[in-house]
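Researcher: For the record, we're logging two predictions in this thread. I'll number them. Prediction 1 follows.
Model: Prediction 1, sequence and structure:
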Amino acid sequence: MTAPRGTLVCLSTAACLALAGVAAPAAAQEWRDWCESIGEDTPLGWHFYCDRAEEDTGDEWASIAPAAPPATARIAAIRRELEESRAAAILDPTPARVAAYLRLQRETLQRAAAFSDAFRRTVWATPDLDYSLTRPVGALAKQLWSDARREEIQAALAGLGESYGLIYLGRSDCAECEVFGPLLRAFSLRHGLDVLAVSMTGEPLEGWPEAVADNGRAAALGLDGAPLPAVALFDAAAREVVPVGFGVLAEDQLAERIFVLTQREPGHDY
């Protein structure tokens, strides 16, 4: 049968309802009501399905807010805005442009101050994040830490001679060696450390009249061409040479370096 001219022809009930201005959820409800009225045992043919999924009303999209840009992108945008405002004020330093830049700068500084305050409060309240418990910075706590560290170093150096010795390289015409030689002698005697003194010129060294001539020793130890004076640890068990330092070192520097090199794993004392 042909529809009269001017009659709206629809291919489906839902389409007619949609074209007539009926909301999609109402059409979906009509479909469900009709399916329920015919019963489960009524044959409808292969192209009818009463168990179809609920119509998508689109309501679930209303609850999904647009994703905020990543924090790094937001920071980059703030920096660009600040730089753009600054550039505009430089090129055209009107009171309005300068004031706009100063306001943005104040906002940026306020963000930094808020972060800094939150940072310290978090550290105070979280012991495992407080580095000052490992290396104190306060005067009293630092003094207590230093005293304990000094005792630990002295105890370690007292038994160091059983496993390590020192190698000293110097020259008879070296002004720094004239100062460092006697200092190293006193240090080694205080801690019971054996020292092999090597004279690069073959002549006696200040504080070390028994120094032996180089004769290739420095090269064999991997210290050829090193700045003088030079001090290295010799690990008797591993047969390894570990440089301690070059140039004039005070006794407390020597003690600290030797302690770290022999008693601490890399990355565990900083």
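Researcher: Logged. Prediction 2.
Model: Prediction 2, sequence and structure:
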Amino acid sequence: MEAMLALSHVCFSYHTVGGETLALTDITFSVGFGEFAVIVGPSGCGKSTLLSLICGLIRPESGEIRRTGRRTDTASRGIGYMLQKDHLFEWRSVYDNVLLGLEIQKKLTQPNLDRVNRMLETYGLSAFAQMKPSALSGGMKQRAALIRTLALDPDLLLLDEPFSALDYQTRLEVSDDIGSIIRREKKTAILVTHDLSEAISMADRVIILSRRPGAVKRILPISFPEEYDTPLKKRNSQEFSHYFNLIWKELKTYG
């Protein structure tokens, strides 16, 4: 079966006046259609750099990246990118914020507007649509940011620690919300996080990187019984601690 995304022997270095710093080396993995992959690793191992390579903001020095079988050498419109901060504009209403991407790309068609309205209703934001972002809680802002990303109907979602600015309780609630939304919308997604519990509870597979230069140490499939059907429920399963210990062991044995 063809992968949505495939990286083959990807390497990347940063070049400065002081010399060359190898950031990523021999990165090889694939992500299937509808799969939720999570990337973890020590600080500075190149996780965010890897997302920049996948979305085409920077190009690998060697190796190749293919999406739906085609090599990607430039930034692609088929990818949605969700960052650590929601970046909602206070001078625009919540509704106008979630329409921003469609507005920029001149895609304010009725089918797209209907899809946005459905998501606002489904995910509890329709009553706040005409309010300013300051009226929303941190979790609601992140939901609005996700709807803005999903409004363009991307093939692939990249999430770079989107919950890191939230307090712990809100982070639990929002990761549960966002994970459930992405699965309900049947999107392929890659999440970068430092939070191992978050990774295990949201992932179909966890990709573990070594310290810099980042290399794939292990790819761990994640599976839970059917009754544990949300990220929050998975944290209460017996399997959860098993996966946590496996990933923790890999991260402690740097190499």
